Amino acid sequence: xxxxxxxxxxxxxxxxxxxxxxxxxxxxxxxxxxxxxxxxxxxxxxxxxxxxxxxxxxxxxxxxxxxxxxxxxxxxxxxxxxxxxxxxxxxxxxxxxxxxxxxxxxxxxxxxxxxxxxxxxxxxxxxxxxxxxxxxxxxxxxxxxxxxxxxxxxxxxxxxxxxxxxxxxxxxxxxxxxxxxxxxxxxxxxxxxxxxxxxxxxxxxxxxxxxxxxxxxxxxxxxxxxxxxxxxxxxxxxxxxxxxxxxxxxxxxxxxxxxxxxxxxxxxxxxxxxxxxxxxxxxxxxxxxxxxxxxxxxxxxxxxxxxxx
Amino acid sequence: xxxxxxxxxxxxxxxxxxxxxxxxxxxxxxxxxxxxxxxxxxxxxxxxxxxxxxxxxxxxxxxxxxxxxxxxxxxxxxxxxxxxxxxxxxxxxxxxxxxxxxxxxxxxxxxxxxxxxxxxxxxxxxxxxxxxxxxxxxxxxxxxxxxxxxxxxxxxxxxxxxxxxxxxxxxxxxxxxxxxxxxxxxxx
Lengths: 309, 188
Hints:
Chain A has helices at residues 28-41, 45-57, 61-80, 102-117, 163-166, 179-194, 212-221, 234-248; strands at residues 9-13, 20-24, 90-97, 143-148, 154-161, 170-174, 202-209, 263-271, 278-285, 290-296, 301-304. Chain A is α+β, with helices and mostly antiparallel strands. Chain A is built from 8 helices and 11 strands. In chain A, the strands form 3 sheets. Chain A has a 5-stranded mixed sheet with strand order 4-3-5-10-11. In chain A, strands 6-9-7-8 form a 4-stranded mixed sheet. By secondary structure, chain B is of the alpha/beta class. Chain B has a single domain, classed as fumarase, CATH 3.20.130. Chain B has helices spanning 10-14, 33-44, 89-96, 109-118, 130-135, 176-182; strands at 2-5, 21-30, 57-59, 64-68, 71-76, 100-103, 121-124, 137-144, 154-169. Chain B has a 5-stranded mixed β-barrel. In chain B, strands 4-5 form a two-stranded antiparallel sheet. The longest helix of chain B is centred in the N-terminal third of the chain and has 12 residues, at 33-44. Chain B is globular and about 55 Å long. The relative contact order of chain B is 0.23. The interface between A and B is large, with 51 and 45 residues.
């Protein structure tokens, strides 16, 4: 909470004459710090439930040992207020609703502060010289996606992924004749070929369609969606369920060491694409798929740990 | 479940079986891509390398370390993806007689060959269990090559019952990852 002596912060949300001025209990950069702290130290409840359910049905002894160690670690991280994983990753932000361009600077300020105070591991480096600025910033960082809408709120969400899972991202520009069977095969192979590297059991984010870049973005956005939020498209929901069953029947298991818990959920997003294309992207979230959202309205800030973008 | 204490001798390591769960106490070092590259480069050129590398337990880990009461403390220290070091590890194992590697996700057959030859095992830590694993680090004994940054530096750790660690690659060329991979069901 802010000191009473600090003047209140006002935020204009909207464009031109079409916006409203709202008074915030905390500055936006502090809200960003809160999001990064929550995401790093508290596992989203839907993932916690999924892990507990998995531990209930898992029969493989090594898998059970590992699921137990994961849940034990989650509890410790939350109680001690420490990052649940040392790879505090690279945050991707989603800014949705009404906003003005100042939000970018506020997010950067929040990332810099959170790196020092939580603390987060300084992970960003120049891609070629590998020079590390030490503050998780640098050219193009952090990645921010803007989704302007007519809603009377500003929603800032963050998805945190470590390199273990991010490095397993795959894009295929399939032939339209490969069809749904080709799509399912690519998704299955991407998850199974990744093996233990992305720290299974996790979430499989899938993008189908769009342009190549849009397809990869959709796959990652799908990871923001809580596991208990059902796909509104019944066809996609069926495919998600089929892949969930198939992947958990593969035998890969936690950390790739065997068992019947390979994924906690499959989430698919689609967009129309070129008639000559069939892009498919897979973005794997590790068991510690870290997310947090803040919806800011003129009366309140509501925090949650997942959002349907 | 077995309790092990470093330094590990070859006989102890060769007696470990795939699937054994162990808890490890004693000294170990961390090393990721950059540490491997530097250790190998210095050794090839006949330049000095930190003595702790010889015969060590090498933890694939880029911890989060904070200053605490005049010393340093690891607050999150889980394993990183070992496969990134696949091309570097065989030479690392052979040059420095590494006795155990702790990591996640497993390593290549070429690494397994070096492990069999030298007498070295791969211990799988639970990926992301960073707080629990950090709790078992009772002392940060120092850092070498700190210029590589927090994640890539070589940290010298003292641990007490670090685990659970699963013997996932043994000294006979066996790999739990390979066993699982060869049996994966991919069909609809």
